[in-house]
Prior knowledge:
The complex is a heterotrimer.
Chain A: E1 5-8, E2 14-18, H1 22-28, E3 39-43, E4 46-51, E5 55-59, E6 75-77, E7 81-87, H2 91-98, E8 114-118, E9 121-130, E10 133-141, H3 142-164
Antiparallel strand pairs in A: 1-7, 2-5, 2-6, 3-4, 4-5, 7-10, 8-9, 9-10
Chain B: E1 12-21, E2 24-30, H1 34-40, E3 47-48, E4 55-56, E5 69-72, E6 75-79, E7 90-93, H2 119-123, H3 130-140, E8 158-161, E9 164-167, H4 171-182, E10 187-190, H5 205-212, E11 216-219, E12 223-224, E13 232-236, E14 241-245, E15 248-251, E16 255-257, E17 270-272, H6 273-283, E18 290-295, H7 298-309, E19 313-319, H8 326-335, E20 339-341, E21 343-350, E22 357-364, E23 370-375, E24 378-382, E25 385-387, H9 390-394, E26 398-402, E27 407-412, E28 417-419, H10 429-446, E29 479-481, E30 486-487, H11 488-496, H12 502-509, H13 522-532, H14 537-540, H15 554-558, H16 571-576, E31 579-584, E32 587-593, H17 600-613, E33 616-619, E34 624-629, H18 633-640, E35 653-659, E36 665-675, E37 678-683, H19 688-702, E38 707-710, E39 715-721, H20 725-730, E40 744-749, E41 752-758, E42 766-772, H21 776-787, E43 793-794, H22 797-806, H23 841-848, E44 855-860, E45 875-878, E46 881-892, E47 897-904, E48 914-918, E49 924-930, H24 940-943
Parallel strand pairs in B: 1-7, 8-14, 9-10, 9-15, 10-11, 15-28, 17-24, 18-19, 18-24, 19-20, 33-43
Antiparallel strand pairs in B: 1-2, 3-4, 5-6, 5-7, 12-13, 13-14, 16-25, 21-22, 22-23, 26-27, 29-30, 31-32, 33-39, 34-37, 34-38, 35-36, 36-37, 39-42, 40-41, 41-42, 44-47, 44-49, 45-46, 45-48, 46-47, 48-49
Chain C: E1 3-6, E2 10-13, E3 17-22, H1 34-42, E4 50-57, E5 62-69, E6 74-79
Antiparallel strand pairs in C: 1-2, 3-4, 4-5, 5-6
Amino acid sequence: MSEIVFENVSRTPRAGVKGPGAAAWLTSLGVPVPDLPNSWLPLPGGLVARLGLTEFLVEGPEAAKLAAPPVHGVYPVLRQDTALVLKGARLNDLLLETCSVDFRALDRAARPVVLTSMAGVGVTAIPGDDAGVPCIRLWCDGTYGEWLLETLAGVAADLTQSSQSHHQGATS
Amino acid sequence: MRLPPQSGEWIIRSKPLGFRFEGREYAGFEGDTVASALWAGGVHVLGHSFKYHRPRGILSAANHDVNALMQAGGTPNVRADATPLQAGMALTAVNTFGTLERDAGRFLGWFARFLPVGFYYKAFHSKRLFPLWERMFRAMTGLGRVDFATPRLRTPKRYGFCDVLVVGAGPSGLSAALAAAEQGADVALVDENARLGGSTHGASELIKQVVAHPRIRIFTDTYAAGYYADHWVPLVEPGRITKMRARAVVVAAGAYEQPAVFRNNDLPGIMLASAAQRMIRRYAIRPAQRVVVLAANADAYRALQDFIEAGIEVAAVIDLRDAVPTEQAAVLAERGIPLHAGHVITEALPAKGDKRVAGVRIAAVATREASAEIACDGVFMSVGWAPAAPLLYQAGTKMRYDDGVQQFVPDTLPDGVFACGRVNGIHTPSARLLDGERAGSAAAAYCGCGAAKPVVVPAETASPTHPWPIVPHPKGKNFIDFDEDLQLADLENAIQEGFDNIELMKRYSTVGMGPSQGKHSNMNALRVLARATGSTPGAVGTTTARPFFHPVPMSHLAGRGFTPERRTPMHARHAAAGALWMPAGAWQRPEYYAVAGLSRSDCIHGEVKAVRNGVGLIDVGTLGKLEIRGPQAAEFLERVYISKYAGLKVGMTRYAVMCDEAGVVIDDGVVARLADDHFYFTTTTSGAALIYRELSRWNTLWKLDCGIVNLTGAMAAMNLAGPKARAVLAGLTDVDLSFPYLAVREGTVAGVPARLLRVGFVGEWGVEIHVPAEHGAAVWDALMAAGQAHGIRPFGVEAQRLLRLEKGHIIIGQDTDGLTTPGEAALDWAVKMDKPFFVGQRSLMAIAAKPRRQQLVGFMLPAGHAGEAPKECHLVIENGEITGRVTSVAWSPTLARHIGLAYVQPDRAQAGSQFSIRLTDGAMVIAEVVRTPFYDPDNLRQKEAA
Amino acid sequence: MKIMTCPVNGPRAISEFAYGGEIRPMPDPATCSDDAWADYVFNRNGSPGVKREWWCHTPSNTWFVAERDTARDVIVRTYLYAGDN
Lengths: 172, 946, 85
């Protein structure tokens, strides 16, 4: 199947926090903190991503813990993202048409988080694979979300159509 | 008539294709180019030259035969020598007045003496004659026709990544790609031809290995359009551009074979030896029956083998060199082919009708006296090469002229850039393979794959390029640039007229400025300039080689064209309510809501009336929304805004104006204090991202104990305003709505956590309601439902602009510009100079000591003003001088008057002063300065408590 | 297009960045002359050479310092502003 499948997971509970005290605060709430900047850890039903040095995104049931009142050096970040999961054999072709980061060169074992621009929209991206099928999780500002989804779906549709018509051209 | 099947030929004889040229039917094969199919079909005149409309045929068959540009139906710029033949093509020649057969432009050749070099420059000197010239040239010049009904083709671009990019799949490029891949590099190999091999031919062992290698990606029919920073190379494929980021680049682009310059060297049948070889090997065509070979290097004698095998009668070999190496001369002796060493062709003789060569006159180099005439229908020239070096130049390579090979070669290559093969001055076939191996290995090592092999590449022992393949002739027509029809004398005249520097000579004569961009002309032009000025090619230098290497279709460059769009959470509600959309930066905002049967201005006025008399609801979610927390949050705001916030009470808001370091107003908004160490503040729509970024930078520098969060996209916001607004909201919120004007409260609206700010922007009792974006639509729906009983209307940007104008409120960027300071914009009251520091303060101090340049005032036109009203940016004129301008103006339905804001001179700024505004047609309108607000001057309606 | 290395996010296409101007010391506004202040606000050093500049990686809002040789178009090094962890 050459189709790229889109799943809209915007409604998944999530919360954000940033600041010099954020890492310690999360630890005090029982949320594990990834060691390295721009990496993530799985959580029951979700994940915690370290965005750069001192900002965190927590997704899943654990996000409820971040409703606790912040302390000094802790700045809550209201997250209202459009969140998508894309999956498909030709996913990398879609990424090559929309983003200048070489996702295939990343060391997956390090669980990288990539903050970049896709089709001109700022995104947070976590590449992965699901039983060998490439997939990627994307978060972007919700006000760009509809446009980004429409645009990526358009790119995916063109790619599906071109696979089906056995389009000639250099392999990627 | 084709030759018997050639080993590795490109044509597929089982797939014949029919096509038309100039109205006649022809047949070719799949795998042919347009030019090869026509030549095989007996068509040897493929086009007429640009200036003199001389018949031209094939010159290079290597994608610089500009004289064979054609039009295929609605598609212009079909390069016959490089475009694959397709069934049903209907081609016509361009640059003819009439058909190719009957081209009325041929007479231009006879008037050549009136079209001297630098013609455009000289002709356009006269302003009086310019319109005449312009009309003439528009009719005469231009190659082809644009079909304006062409549908947009989508050719999405994509990124690509590799370790080593090898440009050119000739012997050295193939060798380089293999060497790099064997060392573990991920290689991308690019060639503009349909097949690998470059100037060699046939499915060699090397090609087989390259094709089979798992780490080599092959791009054929693809050219590298230019070299950009950090090994960024756009690869132009038939259907799209791949933006390739390499870690190292090997330029194995080869060299362009160069024409010799002699009288009538442009007659059809006269071509480069490599062109003849391509015709034979790729397309199984014998390009001519009886040829003269003009030689000056070993390549000529290698090509000779191909000519002989193809059954071409070689009437003679004219060699520019006095001494021809024995092994080369031996080939001729064996076959009884006469060799004239130390001779030149002085002129080619046309057949009757001038459409084909019929013979040549030759002379000894020393005497230049014609010594013989040789009949022939083809002349194949092999006198030298110019490196295909644009990519190297664009990468910053320092080139030098090498007398050993009579060409420019790389002297100092930038890091990560490598060169091999002919472009590197290596021409002997075996040496090219070694040079490629050396470069490929070094490139892979540069990327951390293996070590650079110490390959020894033997230097050339004889020059493959003749330093002066140029023969003057008193009757001229010895062409240097075939695109631009430039003869030797044209360049000599340009130099004599003082344009004796390579850049000046190029632009004055236009040499190298045609579609092939000097591929076959720059080197000879350079030689002419060097000789004429007593210099050397190395000293003369080359002109700048700019992208693109070949013309790139505009559709490729356009790609998809990503233009991100931002939509508020209530977007669908506006669409359902009939909103007309207007872009506001990346956002889409409702300009107004259409009502059937009403004009635009009636709709807008209707919305204004609803707000003044009832209740309206506007989506203000595009505003920037920022949050700052921490012990020094107030201190931070004190530093970035011009007013004071340290003493702002918790639960209150204050208007906020931001200046830059020059004291210029750059943004405004509202600051709300939610707690001692917690503020929520807004910015303009267009300023949001920039302000957040700039505030982040200030705090990186100041390191105050606070943090800023950008909630612009995370919060929805709407303004409910009008005398009935409170009634509408009361049932939906747990907040006591008697909270004071300019205060802020947190609570819920329609069950959703909300921040309520009592604001006065539109001049009625109003509340700005801020909720998390996911609840925006639901809260909007609840308010609209609750408001039905009160006749609630959604209102858009235009109504809001009118409402705020009635209150005299400024809009940053409309009523201020890049130089406006607070005092000029009537914001003196907001500036608190007694703060220890704020951004812009020091500049405002200096400005305060100078006389004010202008003053923003409110104005009205006389009641009952009939006729046109001023528009924004119409000028204020006094005594013939510009003394100000209108920034906002509108018909106020509330006041039944034209109102506006304008900059006037400070001494004209008192209420009651009159000033004149000039309309577009020059008519003057009198306006009177009026205190603002125009409407409800005491602001009672918005402050109303109960 | 040029590559800029964000100290936190690594090498990226320059289109992901915003330029924030050369890092220049601010004269003490309390004591400097109008001329010195105007020079700070309006004048810039245009001569080619290595400049210390503010740059921002916009997708992550990371401000940092880049030392850039404007004569050779080479980015010499990039690092977080002093005191940033």
